[in-house]
What we know:
Layout: H1 6-9, E1 12-15, H2 17-20, H3 31-36, H4 38-44, E2 48-51, H5 79-91, E3 95-101, H6 110-115, E4 129-130, E5 151-154, E6 159-162, H7 177-193, E7 197-201, H8 221-229, H9 234-247, H10 256-269, E8 276-279, E9 296-297, H11 310-323, E10 331-333, H12 342-346, H13 352-365, E11 369-373, H14 394-405, H15 410-420, H16 460-464, H17 470-483, H18 485-489, E12 491-495, E13 502-508, E14 515-521, E15 527-529, E16 537-543, E17 551-553, E18 557-559, E19 564-570
Helix pairs in contact: 13-17, 14-15
Amino acid sequence: MAHLRWWQRATFYQIYPRSFADGNGDGIGDFVGMLAKLDYLQSLGVDALWLSPHFPSPNADMGYDVSDYTGVAPEYGTLDDFRRFLDGAHARGMRVLLDLVLNHTSEQHPWFVESRSSRDNPKRDWYVWRDPAPDGGPPNNWNSAFGGSAWEFDPPTGQYYYHFFFKQQPDLNWRNPEVKQAMWQAVRFWLDMGVDGFRLDAIGTIFEDPAYPNHTSKLSQIEMLRAWRENRSPEEQQALMAEFMDMFKHQFGRPEVHDLMKELRALLDEYPGDRVLIGEDDDVAYYGNGDDELHLVFNFPLMRTNRLTPAWVRANQAERLSKLPPGAWPCNTLGNHDSTRLWSAFGDGQHDAEIARVNAALLLTLRGTPVLYNGEEIGMTDLLLERFDQLRDNQAINLYHFAVGEGISPDEAMRMAARMTRDRCRTPMQWANAPNAGFSPPGVQTWLPVNPNYAQGVNVADQDGDPNSMLNFYRRLLALRKRTPALMAGDYVPVNEEAQDYLAFLRRDEDSGQICLVVLNMSAQFREARFTLPWPSARCLFSSHGHEGETAHLSALRLAPFEIFIGELTHGRA
Ligand code: NOJ
Ligand code: CA
């Protein structure tokens, strides 16, 4: 384990600043609040904190539309508040990663304000401007991933600008070296201050095909809309995803991104302390040769299902691990601020609590760096918003208007918006069984509604002292991971691959000689797992059913429904 770098040993924890802790009682999370929760995070046992964007932003995309890359949003505090948070995290042995949005800025960023001011402004070429098509329409038929055309006409100068996301997020022109210089300055600003790295937003879309060819996909907006409306099977979703990717194929995944990532990596490597880059993309190509682009690339395919079955996980691991370049280190996650919460995503409606625990155990025992999303550790669930005025995510607001425009009733449009909006997983962190879940003082209107299930035990204070709570389940697992070399460093070897209901795999650490067996019963049935391994028994290190310390016989391992078993086969060098 000694040879592992800190980010290979670490468990990462994503903080969504707007919803984590409200220090000044205005209904919005902030740095004073986050600072006050560092002891909590330390007690949880996480090692690195990734903050979703904390920069000044008009919040057309909740912070992912940055208007100042070296500032702090006033609602979150000041740069000094940020420094205190950073120092506080470091003092407790936790690292801090920021969210770096390279693809686009806010339309209100001074760079864009200048750029759009005239065709001959020196910053005109910092963004992607094109003349209208001969008929006056957009330069080509490309779509924005968030709906509608990817081109927005700007009357004062008579040209269109390109935006892969919302129209309030114009894409930067990374072919202009000045853009790079300006952004690298911002990167250095934070590295100089001592931040430990970055989660890179939307890297795949940084460059487009310079010929700007039309796409030929037949997928229409209305079909994409229907996909949200009808709860489709994973297979159908995958087929849709493939079509979706085809539609956007000229707009992402260009080879130029790799040169840019190499450059950014070299910049980071100038700094002491092993700073780290995590890429928001599926593509393992962003690992480069394993040591010259990104340190970590999220294994998103793992979470693209509504049921994590043994077969699904095996197939994912087999494919993912075989694709990694030598030396590359996996990175697994089951939730973030863009997706259904772990609890809500993979449950069956009957055993959601048990399934959430099994999936947490999966995330924390697979090979690779796990990334948790705030609130997951207390079993927070999605919140279905009921009223249009509660929506904050423009994706859902746009979808609502589009649906109503297509003749769908406002009630039905609201239900669709509530189901798809990213607001559902962004509600305030539930700290206590108190008004506003203890996030904000009583009577304050929080920026998104608080999930009322804080009153049913889904809150930190109630779970803190309860040895059987979800929170203490996470704490136990995180502590186990930390003291168990095989779970941190070991390889992944699937065993009993024919088993339909349970997932079993070994983690073997060469250095320490330790080998662990992880068995996760992912079904509601009693099962007996029969192993023919060179070891007849295992010492139980972790059990969801109170078997720790017992010796388990591997010729017939009885598993209760959703039982989690982590056992040690060997200990120390042979
Ligand atoms: C990915 C971020 O996670 C998401 O929240 C955002 O809307 C897009 N990138 C655009 O920045
Ligand atoms: Ca606040």
